[in-house]
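User: I've been going back and forth on whether these two constructs are worth ordering. Before I decide, could you fold them both?

Assistant: Sure. I'll take them in the order you sent them. The first construct and its structure tokens:
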Amino acid sequence: MKIGIVGLPNVGKSTLFNSITNAGAECANYPFCTIEPNIGVVPVPDERLDELTNMYHPEKTTHAIIEFVDIAGLVKGASKGEGLGNKFLSHIREVDAIAHVVRCFDDSNIVHVDGSIEPLRDVETINLELIFSDLEMVDKRLDSAKKRLKADKKAQSEIDVLEKIKETLDAGKCARTVELTDEELETIKDLYLLTLKPVLYIANVSEEQMADAQNDERVNKVKEFAKTENAKVIPLCVKIEEELSSLEGDDKKEMLEALGLDESGLDKVVKTSYDLLGLMSFLTAGEPEVRAWTIKKGTKAPQAAGKIHSDIERGFIRAEVVSFNELMEQGSMVACKEKGLIRSEGKEYIMQDGDIVLFRFNV
């Protein structure tokens, strides 16, 4: 699963990417420093794995992972090819969700492409370019569906959903604000609409703003806009996160405490991105390995088993399940068994986040 980091040039995208992945993407104070997208694979922070590791002392601990893609800065006119726009838009089309970085701080040493700091204008600039690109796709598909209508009456349902989306896009709103049924989403999934992708807004603030970022005027403007899309906003100081990402262990803990933070902003970004994609983790635990496995919310037990190995899904018999919290409360699997807390679940069982599972199978 991929999260694309987007925004105008010089808003902190590549610095954020470097901090998240420590991948060393080039970062400089001029537009279009990033042309080819940089990709970083990062572990999803999960304190449950730490506790299971302390319990089992495994040879290996494996976190769930998520990919972040650092996409070059978009500018006004990108949908018409400005600033290598078409290439950048194609990179966005390939990701599953968007992390939209919005600059909310003043700094005369860092150039802003529009000459001033206005977060909502910047958000609108990016969104409009994505909307224009989507409109082009929707118009082409509408023309095609209308031509097919005489020969194929089923095309009417496609026309209906396309016109619903077109009306929203024409109004300057993103497709994700349209209420669509599962059937309607299936009808248009091969369009890969940019504005249909779930979005997380990252409000990049200064070190001074960070102390009261939740009440910052510019951050609040982004929050008000995000409400219209049911999107989340995470305020963070990319500069601080860059410093934090270079620290480990006690040094990192001390800096977080000095800043009055429970966790880094980057950990919040990664966790929220994981949730944004509708993902969760089930866990397996033992001496060889403690591991988090990524599945979509709503996944049934056999399909979850298939994440480990296709043979386990094919020969699925049952899943022996205990929740992470119950295991921690009892202190051991033996204690959970004695109290009857380990459940035997069949093929229709819908997996829950934090389930610790042993799959029984026969092939």
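The second construct, handled the same way:
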Amino acid sequence: MTTTPFLSLSIWLPIVAGLLVLIFGSGAQRAGTARWLALAGAVAGFLVTLPLYSGFAPASSAMQFSEFSPWIPALHINYHLGIDGISLWFVLLNSVFTPIVVVAAWEVIEDRPAQYLAAFLIMSGLINGVFAALDAILFYVFFEAMLIPMFIIIGIWGGPRRVYAALKFFLYTLLGSLLMLAAFIYLYLKAGSNFEIQAFHALQLPLQAQILIFIAMFMSFAVKVPMWPVHTWLPDAHVEAPTGGSVVLAAITLKIGAYGFLRFNLPIAPDAAHYLAPVMIALSLVAVVYIGLVALVQTDMKKLVAYSSISHMGFVTLGFFVFNPIGIEGGLLQMISHGFVSGAMFLCIGVLYDRMHSRNIADYGGVANTMPKFAAFFMLFAMANAGLPGTSGFIGEFLVTLGSLQANFWYAFLAATTLIFGAAYTLWMYKRVVFGEIANDHVRALLDINAREFALLAILAAAVLGMGIYPKPFTDPMHASVNKLIQQTTLKKI
């Protein structure tokens, strides 16, 4: 047990900061106050997560930085927090992107900036709660509550079809979650009136019960990833969301679904996970191959990157269900890398949209002539999205392919096609937007990125290159937890 509640601080500090922004920053005359308050809260939220990494014991698979307090004693529901080598990185990733999103909105959001920034801060705290919760009901509360700020962000600051996209996003994710709650209640009764997630892990359930539980939780987490065929809400949400919404949606919230598979499906229903693994692998490969082909025909930059995200997340679920350490660690690295790369891609598209108010690839051409600094950053992130060695995009894909090869040659062969399709759709977009002669007067009038935009893209560029060149600091904390998970999934196997 730690003396300083770093996990509680990572959850409640951004939430309190968001409420302070609403109280002291609302009103047209207080926009500057709202921005600075939001930045202070976001940076403070990031700083309190640094001890989670510096004080983490990588050799241990146990939950660390634990906090425990009774919440609803009559139902044995507790405020129980803790992280292991799997959840650590997603608390850090979320806390890194919160100040980035605040700064990205600095000069762009002029309509109700206090409410906009407060929504992101509150959502940041709730997302950290999802990754740190060790009580199933606490997890469920955070899991559902984080939908509300994103729903508001898309519905108020989104594009012309924002209401449709927000409702579709909310309904898809909410309906799946109800089945997960039903599974939690069943497990609560089986665990002796206990909602502790680790107590769920210790249960010995018959295969038929495991399959039903697996499917119930799958319906919630598959929508969140999103896996094919429940992916259709994501392109609509991305296209209509403001830049900050797209960044957090791609970089953070998609990871919650994949995290749910590791924290719930695999250890609670290991026999069912093995039994249904061929189905999960098939769905993952459809996402990798088919959705990669769908991305090839997109004419909207945001929609192209949205489909690219679905394809890359297919790699993640593939890695999880080949049941070997290389595949699972590759999936985790792919999640972290996808956070950096997709977040950066949406920021780059946002930079162009802020200047030209268009996301159509055909409206651009020759951007490198007027925005050379931007073109250089965009090139790096495009290469990472295509899986170029030396960037973070290569590490996860390579390990998942290697782990898949250990399971089945054809899994690896089909997964490797993403290196072709990813390069095709990403470079096609980059060539049409950035290279060539200046296409029109709108492109001719473009101004290169300013110091604020340069700083944001430089931070993400450093992360993409650092992880691609030296991934060891990312992999070390996860070894023990992944090995424990592998043990959990094999000990009870029929």
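Notes on the second construct follow. The chain is about 75% helix and 5% strand. The beta strands are 64-72, 77-83.
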